[in-house]
Amino acid sequence: MTSTRENPAVSDEEAGGRAHGGQPTEEQKLLHAAASGPMSVVASDTFGWIDPEVAHRPLTRRDLRPHITHLGLVAVTLSAIGLIVSWFGPWGFAPGFIGLVLGVIALFRKSERRRWCWSSIVLGAVSILFSAYWLTWILPRFAMLEALTP
C-alpha cells in the first residue's frame, strides 16, 4: 500500500496538512492543545455545563427547583382514562375517582406541578359526573324491565 507521500497526485494540504517531515503544523498543534486538558474542562467546553466546579455560571431558578415526582402525571392519566371510559358506560367512575383523589394528594405536595394536579381533579370530577349520568339513565331502565317481566 502506498502512503500519501509516495503518491505525487496528493498535495500537502490533502495529505492531512503535515509538513514534509511528517510533523503537525502549528494550526494542528493549537487545535490539539485546545482539546486536551482535564476531562471535566474538556467535557464542559464540548457538551455544556457538566461539573459545578468547572461551570462559572450561577444556579438558575430552574436548577434550584425541588425534585418533581410523577404523582400528578399518574393522577392525570387515570382521570383521563376514567373520562374516556365514562363516555361509553358507568365504568369510568373508578379510575376517575382514583385520579381525583391522587390529584388532591398531589396538590398538597410542594414538589408537584399545580397544573397537572388541577387537571386531574377536573378530569376526575367530569368522569364521575358522566358515570353518574349513566347510572341515572340505566337504573330506571332496569326497573322498567323488572316491571315488564312476569
Question: How would you characterize this protein structure?
Answer:
With 150 residues, the protein is mainly alpha-helical. The chain has six helices and no strands. It has helices at residues 26-35, 39-47, 61-64, 71-86, 93-107, 114-148. Helix 4 (71-86) packs antiparallel against helix 5 and helix 4 runs parallel beside helix 6 (114-148). It is elongated. Mean pLDDT is 75; it is low at 1-7.
Mean pLDDT across all residues, rounded?
75
* Oligomerization category of the chains in this entry: single chain
Number of domains: 2
- In terms of DSSP E residues, the strand content is under 5%
Measured as a percent range, the helix fraction is 55-70%
Rounded to the nearest angstrom, the distance between the terminal CA atoms is 101 Å
Structural class: mainly alpha
The biggest beta sheet reads: none
From the spread of the alpha carbons, the general shape counts as: elongated
Order of helices and strands: HHHHHH
H/I helix tally: 6
Q: What's the number of extended β-strand segments? A: 0
Radius of gyration, whole Å: 34 Å
Low-confidence stretches: 1-7
